[in-house]
Design brief:
CATH superfamily of the largest domain: Diaminopimelate Epimerase, Chain A, domain 1
Low-confidence stretches: none
Number of helices: 2
Radius of gyration: 20 Å
Number of strands: 12
Helix content: 10-25%
Largest sheet: 12 strands, mixed
Mean pLDDT: 91
Oligomer: single chain
Distance between the termini: 44 Å
Structural class: mainly beta
């Protein structure tokens, strides 16, 4: 919008973003030509496992849910590991989440109604155990991919947590919930619609927060770069 690629419209400007999980519709608040808070409506999100448990090395029996919000996540209360997402060392939280991810990947095959390439556990989210809006802000840490930590509460992660809450009757339609990351960044989540998605009951979730520029990339083909024009290996 700031670059003129999308026409700025007050009070909201809509931007469609094609993501690996599908089309995500983003909305930017605009006031006096200036951009403000950003929100997006998720792809269909759903829970696939509730109150499952596994015995993990060094931690014992751990209870968890698995939900999809653009990616699949295992969701678990950090207290089960003897940890606190508000005070424990990040290294300890990462090790616990990684152990959970590895175990769930082996124990629980996943499937997606439309995209087989998305049917894998992306990571685990350890929470402070707060699962209702009335509990107040809920802090979590999202550990994904190769033991990486998201600085934010995680858009797809918040979506997955809201889908799990809704399916378990812990949150109502249009009830807003606040989520914090271990860095203090905040997102709000709100279930805006319920639907049938394949054989699953699913929801779409609106996630809102503050967006910032993080960089800019430029690519060009140098005039003398013949390889850059294309090549074929046999």
């Amino acid at each position: 919008m700031d670059q003129g690629l999308v026409e700025a419209t007050e009070p909201f400007t809509t931007v469609n973003i094609e993501c690996p999980c599908g089309m995500v519709v983003a909305s930017v608040e605009v006031n006096g030509g200036k951009a403000g808070a950003v929100s997006f409506e998720s792809v269909p999100a759903f829970i696939v496992a509730t109150n499952r448990s596994l015995v993990l090395p060094d931690y014992g029996r751990i209870q968890f849910d698995v939900a999809y919000g653009g990616a699949f996540y295992a969701l678990a209360d950090a207290a089960q590991f003897g940890l606190d997402v508000r005070s424990s060392h990040v290294r300890e939280l990462v090790d616990a989440a990684t152990t959970l991810t590895e175990a769930v990947r082996v124990a629980l095959p996943l499937n997606h109604p439309e995209h087989d390439d998305l049917a894998f556990l992306y990571g685990s989210i350890l929470t402070d155990g707060r699962d209702r809006a009335a509990d107040g802000p809920s802090r979590n840490i999202c550990v994904f991919a190769n033991a990486e930590v998201d600085r934010s509460p995680t858009g797809s992660g918040v979506t997955a947590r809201m889908a799990a809450r809704f399916a378990q009757g812990k949150v109502a339609l249009h009830e807003r919930c606040l989520f914090e990351s271990v860095t203090g960044a905040e997102f709000t989540g709100e279930v805006v619609a319920a639907m049938q998605y394949g054989e699953r009951q699913a929801v779409t979730v609106r996630v809102s927060g503050q967006a910032h520029y993080s960089g800019e990339a430029r690519y060009w083909l140098d005039e003398g770069d013949t390889i850059g024009k294309g090549f074929l290996l046999r």
